[in-house]
Amino acid sequence: MVAQVLAHDLLAELPERWRHTVGVAARADAMNRAVAPHDVETVLVAAWLHDIGYSPSAVDTGFHPLDGARYLSAHGWPARICSLVAHHSAAVLMASERGLGAAMREFPIEISAVADVLTLADQTVGPNGEPMTLDERLAERQTRTGRDGRGAREQSFRAVERRVSDLLGVRT
Question: What's the pTM?
Answer without folding.
Answer: 0.93
